[in-house]
Amino acid sequence: MAAEEAASGAPEGAGAQETLSNLLHEGRRFAPPAALAEAANVRADAYQASAADRLGFWAEQARRLHWDREWDQVLDWSGAPFARWFVGGRLNVAYNCVDRHVESGHGDQVALHFEGEPGDRRSVTYAELQREVCRAANALTELGVRAGDRVAIYMPMIPEAVVAMLACARIGAPHSVVFAAFSPGALRSRIDDAQAKVLITADGYHRRGSVVALKPNADEAVQAEGGAQSIEHVLVVRRSGQEVPWTTGRDVWWHEVTERQPDQHKAESFDSEHPLFILYTSGTTGKPKGILHTTGGYLTQVSYTHSAVFDLKPDSDVFWCTADIGWVTGHSYIVYGPLSNRATEVLYEGTPDTPNQGRFWENVDRYGVTILYTAPTAIRTFMKWGTEVPARYDLSSLRVLGSVGEPINPEAWMWYRENIGRGRCPIVDTWWQTETGGIMISPLPGVTSTKPGSAMRPLPGISAEVVDVDGNPVPNGAGGLLVLDQPWPSMLRGIWGDEERYRQTYWARFADQGYYFAGDGAKKDEDGDIWLLGRVDDIMLVSGHNISTTEVESALVSHPAVAEAAVVGAVDETTGQRIVAFVILRGGNEEVATLAEELKAHVAREIGPIAKPRQIQVVPELPKTRSGKIMRRLLKDVAEDRALGDTTTLTDASVMELISSKLPHATD
Ligand code: ATP
Ligand code: MG
């Protein structure tokens, strides 16, 4: 079943007869550190204030930005599910992220500390960033790019990528960033979908100690026959210095065209609903969707949430979000949120294990990173590598830790808290999506007493509910489906060029109530705090009980031998589905004959016999999207002995062969 269908129709596995089981219990609580609470950007009263006047609250947040013309109306929801926020307002995103800070006297503050994988370094101040963005905006204009034209960006994690995005925003040309490790085919289909006029890329980049060529992939995507036809120019940044194939007339060196431009450019103001970017989802559940975001509401929410959730203090913090700019996390929390808040941040080109497994912690130490935002997949990898790696580094600068991308298993959360935060730093587990544009559910570091594994509450100004299959809110202590029952400023404005798919995917499931259906399962615990339980498509139905993959995985990860686990429900004649688990062991653990039995017993003890996996397979790796998320649907294909579904966003296809060869195909 295609993911789009699953998301719009009745959720697979979530039978109509009952809500999701609420199996895992967690008693640990961590209060915010007193000093942080005292000086926090956002206090507890924000919840009441925003609940009393939600639109007034967002209007107040919008005033964080510079508007060339103020809005006439905060929200127009009359065309639901298409929202218009800050109607009639006009602003320029690049001006807000760069020029404004130079004008207020902060031109010498470092915006980006760039750390190349080979160890080359460069710090870019806000004044330098302003000049570079102006030059790039002039260059794009010279190449014929006008407001409304689409620009594809296929670049590594280098400052020019940020400059390119801001230059597009400055001239009102929506960008479509495509992750640099994607294939020419994936790039081509994204260029075609958006009909992009210009492609910005690089000669190559550094990854895992070697130089990866990028330009030949870009060429393949736009080549004359069968390639993307809309591209008029390919702008090439010199990063790796390698020889590149060249098409005269079409290809232009970035440095040649930008160097001859004036370093001043007048930022035009755009309508609050002017398109800012198109970005494709990760493809965890199926074919990626081209999500459209616009200007005023998006910038308001990413700016507010970045300040509130990370407690950013622009004069003293050093922020590091380890995501790639190819994902929404990079858009919202490397580029637009932090820069609109005048953050100083780290931009790292490479992988966590080059030249050694301590590279992240070396970066934290070198730049004095105070706020670190990373993903559960990275944390579980660090668990696998062992505690002795981070223990070698001075991590005392850290004060807030963030997590995003997948549910974080309580044991991974504890590991992060103890081994990276050294027991001092609050963890903000942030739930959101490409579609939501900004963070929606998260603790506030100076307010919330956190629980390992819970994203806790919707942020001030945000309204979310956990409902049953009929759309009724579930009581505390029960599980169901996560919905957003009120529009929010940075919500998607559609799927590019496909209005019907937008309505079907997000709004058809609870059409009567007018809820946005996120596609995720969740539970409300006894206190009403929210726990994300993974994709609704992944929920298992075992002997009449809906069981979440996340809970079983978290139980497995709470065993000292397990670093990472992926669980799927495979068809079973007697029980409906049987639970099949794939586990990766923690560093120093060997696979022993008794392990599977021991893990089964452990799960039964932790959450109950009903959740006991029927099969457990130790594997060296799990199939992940290029954004690092586990692709359970492929494991399910293996467990059910079927041909694999769409693998275009899979990091490494050979992983699947390895797993498939290890799994006994008999249904034992
Ligand atoms: P696709 O929509 O193409 O299947 P995707 O959903 O993985 O891909 P993203 O928009 O990158 O694409 O990811 C959003 C999803 O990631 C959420 O719907 C949720 O399932 C998961 N997620 C993100 N953050 C969290 C979190 N803190 N806790 C639990 N799940 C999270
Ligand atoms: Mg999704």
Largest sheet: 7 strands, mixed
Find the structural class using helix and strand composition.
alpha/beta
Number of helices: 21
Strand content: 15-25%
N-C termini distance: 26 Å
Strand order of the largest sheet: 5-4-17-16-18-19-20
The percent of residues in helical segments reads: 25-40%
Uncertain residue segments:
1-18
Count all strands and give the number: 29
Globally, the shape reads globular
Q: Averaging pLDDT over every residue, what do you get?
A: 93
Rg is 24 Å
Heterogens: adenosine-5'-triphosphate, magnesium ion
What order do the helices and strands come in, and which of them pair?
Elements: H1 3-8, H2 34-38, H3 45-52, H4 54-62, E1 73-76, E2 84-87, E3 90-91, H5 93-106, E4 110-115, E5 121-125, H6 126-142, E6 151-153, H7 159-171, E7 175-177, H8 184-194, E8 198-202, E9 204-207, E10 210-213, H9 215-222, E11 233-237, E12 251-253, H10 254-259, E13 270-271, E14 275-280, E15 290-294, H11 296-310, E16 318-321, H12 328-340, E17 344-348, H13 359-367, E18 371-374, H14 376-385, H15 388-391, E19 400-403, H16 410-420, E20 427-429, E21 464-467, E22 479-484, H17 499-507, E23 516-524, E24 530-535, E25 540-542, E26 545-547, H18 549-557, E27 562-572, E28 576-585, H19 595-607, E29 615-618, H20 632-639, H21 654-662
Parallel strand pairs: 4-17, 6-7, 6-8, 7-14, 8-11, 11-12, 16-17, 16-18, 18-19, 19-20, 28-29
Antiparallel strand pairs: 1-2, 3-13, 4-5, 9-10, 14-15, 21-22, 22-23, 23-24, 25-26, 27-28
Helix pairs in contact: 3-4, 5-6, 5-7, 5-12, 6-7, 8-9, 11-12, 14-16, 18-19
The structure holds adenosine-5'-triphosphate and magnesium ion (MG).
